[in-house]
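Appendix C reproduces, verbatim, an entry submitted by the partner laboratory led by Prof. M.T., so that reviewers can inspect both the input and the predicted structure.
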Amino acid sequence: MRPWLTCMVSLIWVSFSAAQSLRVELVPRIGYAWGGQIRVEERAFQFKNLDVDVSSSGTYGLSLNVPLGASLMAEVLLVRQDTQLKDNQGLFGEVPGGFVKPGSKHILDVELTTSQAGLLWVAKEGATRWHLSVGLGMTHVNFLLPIPSDTVMSYSLGGGLQWELSQHLGFRLEGRYLAANTDENLRSTYRFANPDCRAPCSYTYAYKDWFRQTWLSAGLAIRF
């Protein structure tokens, strides 16, 4: 019986070791994003500079990890968020001058697409694996409103936990901080006439100096 027992223990150990070694991983993911603002310079009725929030909403994306060493992996990340501007002050729908039709549901839509390359460091290996990550790349901000769209440099910092479900499959939970270096000088101004304005009525829509978000995502790590 001893040779059989020795053989079984050896096979289990080899399988366990193979499951824990770093391999190429493809991770489809879904998640949620918080944060992000633009600035509205209101020069019609309130004469204020107002920060307009981007609504928190779901995200989806994909990451690819390729081993570089015993605890280091290269990472390519792609994340998409379809969301809206929060307009609870009537900043886009005033009449005359507004360009949002009453009852419109999609004109405030915003599309955020981030693509980055970076590194993922495995801080703790085992059946439960901790990691830290950093990425650098581009974020594209696209408005359906007549506000300038832009593609800017962005970086992200994150950390996560991965549970190994089998030799070829794991479940990954991750949090990230994103910062995009938007151009506050990129703006659009719209002027209109209204007898209640104290001066020529205008709204100026502009980016803030930085666009910041927090991400939380979950995905299946498919190991090759």
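Residues 22-223 form a domain with the Porin fold (CATH 2.40.160.20). Additional entries are available on request from the coordinating office.
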